[in-house]
Amino acid sequence: MPMQTIRIDRRFRGPPTSGNGGYVAGLLGNAMGGVPCIVTLRMPPPLDRPLQLECDGTTASLIDGDALVASAVAGAVELVVPPSPTIEDAEAGEAGFTGFCHHIFPGCFVCGPERAVEDGLRIFPGRVDGPEGQVAALWRPDAGLADGDGHVRPEFLWAALDCPGYFAVEKRSGAAVLGRMGAVIHRAVRAGEPVIVTGWPIASDGRKHQVGTALHDGNGQRIAAALATWVSIPPPPSK
């Protein structure tokens, strides 16, 4: 099985000591050749040390020593994507981003308000008119996220599809982390292009919360979509 060594730079953290789940899932998606696939996170992805990424074209594994960090399998990602809000409505939705007042991981690469422009993605989804629970934000990916042709690298599209799903179920889930994510990318995005990012709740069962997320262009055409499961973090035992 082909193998490469990768490192998750601290810049791409979600929680303070582990990689952002969507970004890490995107690394496995890249290894799979960009085909629609489902990634399961088995443990918090460690930062700043060598990890082994193995792929045979239909499956991929991210390994830390003897521990399986994440795995991917090719497969269809099926979900009903609601219509996109307008650019103006998505931008206005950011004013209702709850993370400005309270954020469990304020340094998150995707949605952390502590991250500076051109450091984090600074995607701040808030409630908009539409399906119940839908949140949205406007994202203009900077040039530092692009490849040599000016297209945003796919792992950053996966990352953008991550956190908006959490904010669609935040009130129900409480503190939660990404457990599984399947994504399909329909087309590339150019740096600087306005992207409407949405998230919406689908179903909850105990600690597990299924959500959908999507990226649309300014004309409402779909760029990418994802189906994800977030898992509530149990509260610490009372003393």
Walk me through the structure.
With 239 residues, the chain is of the alpha+beta class. It is 15% helix and 32% strand. The protein contains 4 helices and 11 strands. The protein has an 11-stranded antiparallel beta sheet. Helix 1 (21-31) runs antiparallel to helix 3 (154-160). It starts with a strand and ends in a 7-residue tail after the last strand. The relative contact order is 0.17.
Features:
239 residues; alpha+beta; 11-stranded antiparallel sheet; 4 helices
**Largest sheet data:** 11 strands, antiparallel
Helix and strand pattern: EHEEEEHEEHHEEEE
- Strand arrangement across the biggest beta sheet: 1-3-4-5-2-8-11-10-9-7-6
Helix content: 10-25%
Summed up:
Helix content is about 15%, strand content about 30%. With about 240 residues, the protein is of the alpha+beta class.
Give the secondary structure arrangement, pairings included:
Layout: E1 3-6, H1 21-31, E2 37-41, E3 51-55, E4 59-64, E5 67-74, H2 87-93, E6 126-127, E7 135-139, H3 154-160, H4 163-173, E8 176-185, E9 195-205, E10 208-216, E11 222-232
Antiparallel strand pairs: 1-3, 2-5, 2-8, 3-4, 4-5, 6-7, 7-9, 8-11, 9-10, 10-11
